[in-house]
Amino acid sequence: MDPVGIYFVGTAGAGKTSLVGAMQQWMGLKGLDCITVNLDPGAETLPYSPEYDIREWLSLHKVMEEYGLGPNGAQIAAADLLAMRVHEIRDILETFRSPYILIDTPGQLELFAFRKASRLILETLTGERSTLAFLLDPTLAKMPSGYISQLMLAATVQFRFSVPMMNVLSKSDLLSEGEIENIVGWAEDAYKLQSAAEAELGGPYNQFNIELFRALETVGAFRNFIKTSATELSGIEDIYTAVQNHFAGGEDLMKD
Ligand code: GTP
User: Could you tell me the distance, in angstroms and rounded to a whole number, from the CA of residue 16 to the centre of ligand 1?
Assistant: First the structure.
């Protein structure tokens, strides 16, 4: 059976790399086979040893020098260079014959969300057996306005990729129980979110009205989330279960 690719996406510093490392560790502890892939040429250090690391042949510094680009331009050029070798990468990944590929994407969300190259990468590497884990950064998500902004980003990502996506609240150990309860409430009830946003901004919150939340719901961005912590290794099982539910109807893919 072709492997399932789980792509971890989110704003810079949302915790993608740490969660990839944590999920690999958790799966190892459960005796589940997976491989990890780093697609971020700008990553300095990784808390895991990827089976495939784009930095082995693509250096952001070299791209900057060679093409006379700044760091952001180099990231864009790097995404295109990566896309040009994507078939070769797929062939390498196939040799591991692992049922799960955990994929760490570049720090800047827009690089993954907006570039045509990313769609080609996802389609070529794992095609229909791809899923996105969209990370909600807790430092933003704990405020209604930040939570709404993150949902809008999630909607943008979902709009670009026609594959199942789960919202994942990362670094939940940094939030108090009350803060987590608030986010749970907002995820369940758009009216609650609207009044919290009004209270935060001290007035009618017309731009972000209920119609906007309905639109976010329609594209699948407004939904419950999975609460995780890479440091506490918590919530990873829920990501795994969500993947099973989608790709194996709740059966364990490994048992198949
Ligand atoms: P970029 O790719 O550089 O944009 O970052 P990223 O999204 O991969 O985030 P990364 O995993 O590098 O984490 C960013 C920071 O958050 C680091 O300082 C991590 O140590 C910290 N961090 C990540 N996950 C957790 C967590 O579960 N709990 C806590 N407390 N800190 C975390």
Answer: 7
Q: Span 211-221, mean pLDDT?
A: 77
Q: Contact, 69 vs 137, CB < 8 A?
A: no
Burial class (CB in 10 A: 0-12, 13-18, 19+), 217: middle
The atom number, within ligand 1, closest to the CA of 229 reads 27
Residue nearest to atom 14 of ligand 1 (CA): 13
Does ligand 1 lie within 6 Å of residue 137's CB atom? no
What are the residues facing 134 on neighbouring strands? Answer: 9, 167
**Termini Cα distance of the chain:** 9
Q: Are 6 and 134 in contact (CB under 8 A)?
A: no
What distance in angstroms lies between residue 18's CA and the mean position of ligand 1's atoms? 5
Position 256: which residue type? D
223 burial (CB, 10 Å; 0-12 / 13-18 / 19+) is middle
Expressed in angstroms and rounded, the spacing between residue 131 Cα and the centre of ligand 1 is 21
70-129 tens-digit pLDDT: 988 998 899 999 999 999 999 999 999 999 999 999 888 888 888 888 999 999 999 999
Place of tokens 């994942």: 168
CB atoms within 10 A of CB 221: 22
Residue 182 CB–ligand 1 contact under 6 Å: no
Alpha-carbon span 67 to 74, nearest angstrom: 8
Question: What pTM value is reported for the model?
Answer: 0.93
Write out the two tokens for 171: 């670094």
